TrEMBL record:
One Gene Ontology biological process: protein localization to plasma membrane
Record-stated family: Belongs to the RAMP family.
Signal peptide: 1-21
PANTHER family named among the record's database cross-references: RAMP2 PROTEIN, RECEPTOR ACTIVITY MODIFYING PROTEIN RAMP
GO terms for cellular component: cell surface; plasma membrane; receptor complex
Gene Ontology terms, MF aspect: coreceptor activity
Membrane topology value: Single-pass type I membrane protein
Species: Cyprinodon variegatus
Keyword terms, alphabetized: Cell membrane, Disulfide bond, Membrane, Receptor, Signal, Transmembrane, Transmembrane helix, Transport
Protein name: Receptor (G protein-coupled) activity modifying protein 2
Domain of life: Eukaryota
């Protein structure tokens, strides 16, 4: 994690002073104003927009999310109204970086970061228990295919008895 923190420091200083280096050696997205910064970082430190570069950029999003979550009491971590904006910010941050680097989003990397977030912050949150639907709906769901089987068998028998195969 020490390397990630060092990179985040470099990233933040790089982000605050947009470098106008030479032309990029790869295509860069233009959807967000910070795309030039992200692409320049990847070119300067990785040579191109690799998943390693994206991973290090995502660590900035994760650091921001962690800081925001730390501002809450741990009892509030399970209150969606209190964490939804932080969650959305992380999602937007990761998506914008991927869009800038022209890497598909969602991807396996961002999924790992979301799993990390969930295992760290939301693992103790209660989840709604799944329950069976009411008996009338269960009966309809079970009896419908059971009743269709004899109908389908009857149709097949009638079709083969005809013998002409055209009806």
């Amino acid at each position: 994690m020490k390397g990630a923190v060092g990179f985040i420091g470099i990233f933040l200083s790089f982000f605050s002073e947009v470098s106008e280096g030479g032309p990029l050696s790869f295509d860069c997205g233009t959807k967000y104003p910070e795309c030039d910064v992200y692409c320049s970082i990847c070119q300067d430190y990785y040579g191109n927009p690799t998943m390693n570069c994206l991973s290090d950029l995502y660590k900035h999003c994760l650091q921001t999310f962690t800081t925001e979550m730390s501002s809450l009491n741990t009892t509030d971590w399970c209150v969606w109204n209190k964490v939804s904006s932080f969650y959305s910010n992380f999602s937007h941050c990761s998506e914008s970086m991927a869009d800038c680097l022209l890497i598909p989003w969602p991807n396996s990397l961002v999924e790992r970061f979301f799993v990390e977030i969930h295992s760290k912050f939301f693992k103790d949150c209660p989840t709604e228990e799944f329950s069976d639907p009411p008996p009338a709906i269960m009966f309809a769901l079970v009896i419908t295919p059971i009743c269709l089987i004899p109908v389908m068998v009857s149709l097949v028998v009638l079709k083969t008895k005809n013998g002409d195969g055209n009806s």
